[in-house]
Automatic annotation (TrEMBL):
<protein>
    <recommendedName>
        <fullName>Protein FAR1-RELATED SEQUENCE</fullName>
    </recommendedName>
</protein>
<dbReference type="InterPro" id="IPR018289">
    <property type="entry name" value="MULE_transposase_dom"/>
</dbReference>
<keyword id="KW-0479">Metal-binding</keyword>
<keyword id="KW-0863">Zinc-finger</keyword>
<dbReference type="GO" id="GO:0008270">
    <property type="term" value="F:zinc ion binding"/>
</dbReference>
<dbReference type="InterPro" id="IPR031052">
    <property type="entry name" value="FHY3/FAR1"/>
</dbReference>
<feature type="domain" description="FAR1">
    <location>
        <begin position="68"/>
        <end position="159"/>
    </location>
</feature>
<feature type="domain" description="MULE transposase">
    <location>
        <begin position="291"/>
        <end position="384"/>
    </location>
</feature>
<dbReference type="Pfam" id="PF10551">
    <property type="entry name" value="MULE"/>
</dbReference>
<dbReference type="InterPro" id="IPR058778">
    <property type="entry name" value="HTH_FAR1-11-like"/>
</dbReference>
<feature type="domain" description="FAR1-related sequence 11-like HTH-like">
    <location>
        <begin position="172"/>
        <end position="226"/>
    </location>
</feature>
<comment type="function">
    <text>Putative transcription activator involved in regulating light control of development.</text>
</comment>
<comment type="similarity">
    <text>Belongs to the FHY3/FAR1 family.</text>
</comment>
<keyword id="KW-0539">Nucleus</keyword>
<keyword id="KW-0862">Zinc</keyword>
<dbReference type="GO" id="GO:0005634">
    <property type="term" value="C:nucleus"/>
</dbReference>
<dbReference type="Pfam" id="PF03101">
    <property type="entry name" value="FAR1"/>
</dbReference>
Amino acid sequence: MASIPSKNVWIRRQQCPCGDWKCYVSYEGEGEETCVAAQLVKSERVSSEAMVAPYVGMVFKTDNDAFEYYGNFARNNGFSIRKERSRLSPQLGVYKRDFVCYRSGFAPAKKKPIGEHHRDRKSVRCGCDAKMYLSKEVCEGIAQWFVVQFSNVHNHELLEDDQVRLLPAYRKIHEADQERILLLSKAGFPIHRIVKVLELEKGIHGGQLPFLERDVRNFVQNRKKIVQEHDALLNEKREIDTMELLEACKATKESDEEFVYDFTVDSNDKVEHVAWSYGYSVNAYAMFGDVVYFDTTYSSITYGLLLGVWLGIDNHGRTIFFGCVLLQDETSRSFAWALQTFIRFMRGTFPQTILTDLDPGLRDAIRTELPATKHIIPKWNILSKVSSWFSLHLGSHYAEFKAEFDLLYSVESTEDFDIRWGQMVSMFGLVSDKHIDLLFSFREYWVPSYIRGCLLAQMATPAYFKSVDLFLKGVFNAQTCLCSFFEKVGISANFQGHEHQEMQYLQAKTNIPIEEHARSILTPFAFNALQHELVLAMQYAASEMADGSYLVRHFKKMDGECLVMWIAESEQIHCSYGDGKAL
């Protein structure tokens, strides 16, 4: 019977560097890594060196140790064993174990159903008397198992090495092979083709796998049955817990009129997507909703749902919660519904900037639903992709590639970036790499020279990323069900909104009037951000031109000057450094 996790497990979604679902890595010696699948190319065999035959009086720490030893002896001698009988006592528990040859005893006679065709399968049992019996003794509180009877006399022919490996006891499909078989089966490969692929990958002749074709067939059929049962249980649990979540939303709405939620149902009238927000979140958005971060890095294993969280930052630099959504998939249509619902929750107010993960479906939804909003992909999101996509592919050249990639963040113009990007791609032989193409196609969302002048509100910084990560980890603390998750989100969101901020002494650094005025009206977080820019501004010299514009140049740079112009009518500043964009 299939089982499901007793807890709802949330995981941060990421792609394995090798491109597969799992990595099987073990360690051989000092720091030497090797793939387990590669290790299993060698057929798992017990050493052919001579083993000492079990004997009466031989001692083992446990009965499992004894069974393993006898099993290895049996394989080296052309047969296999099975567990026969065991005996219990109130004082010792199991105190006797009988291990026998796989051909011990006789198969019981079966009555054939009348009128039905029945396949008469011949039994391998022939009354063989080979055996090893054990007895447990406890001395000074320590239990030991002693061999009390042993016989290695068989009444049947023993098998050669190439035959004994095919006995059922030794035909095992290891985990790495199981994953590969399931992957090939999912891709539509028939069983005989799967076996052939495994043989080719391991570089062995036909028939040399440690299992048979029928073992592969049985494994695939059994796994499909388990998956079907598991999926059925998960679907049932998801339906029940989702309805309980909606009941919790309804109850919250009755006690808090400002609470908002919405959901959709599919063609089978089952809940599809659910979104919600709180009154204090809506009010916070009215003050601090110019820039929004939409996090979609977590998904639920148990429910198969993607979580989206809308977050912001207040004037104290604290992460604030705006809303939450559970989506059944990652399609552009689902993201579009989430964005539509969020804007409706926020009383029709659109953000100036939205920060998200790198996702083509999400990008398309933002283009449609938030056409006037600037879409930005934070640096931390890009760098995590770069590591997972290229570290394994480039190997020892990755460090050099990463250094070149980091330099691109300091390129000042879009034209120079495109040129330097092409040079880097050619240097490392990545001209046809799909991830390189994806990053370049998204350059207007993450490259500094493309997004200069956009309002980011200090939300594209490492400090904000750490704050978001801390908030999300506080929410995803192994919740048992969706209702518990819902409650945890509400508690965390409310705590963020009422977190106490201690007063700080603000020290002036430039002693210019604007700094003194800012110190009297801004929070420490906002003042520190402005002060940082004022200190940097001191490194630039401005020369007024005849037309009222200013020529600005860094005191250490002979080139790179830019023209800055103030447009009084529209109260905008235009800078040639930002490709003429208004600031």
